[in-house]
Amino acid sequence: KADRFMYESFRFKEPQDIYFAPDASGYIFVTDKATDSLYIFSNVGFEGVNPPANSNVKKQIIASFGGSGIDGKASGPFNLIDPTGVCYNRRAILVADKGNNRICRYILNTDLQ
Question: Rounded to an integer, what distance in angstroms lies between the CA atom of residue 47 and that of residue 41?
Fold first, then answer.
């Protein structure tokens, strides 16, 4: 069902925040300061999101992202530095990206194009 799991020993280096989605998805979001990343898990701890209904993919699709970018500086919208908070509402994920002095908004989407 998945290649990576939330409950593996030493999965995180310095987790800062965790948020449980209040909708039917039940996703769990974790920010990790040491890896400058946002991790997304299913409600049972599989890393990733469910594949679309018509997809031939059977495993969770990894949707976690982050990393500080080039030379420790955020070089793109998916590069984070010291993410300290996360929340989720109606497919929108908001991340407090402390090191870049910004709030990032992402739309969780598994539409195939």
Answer: 4
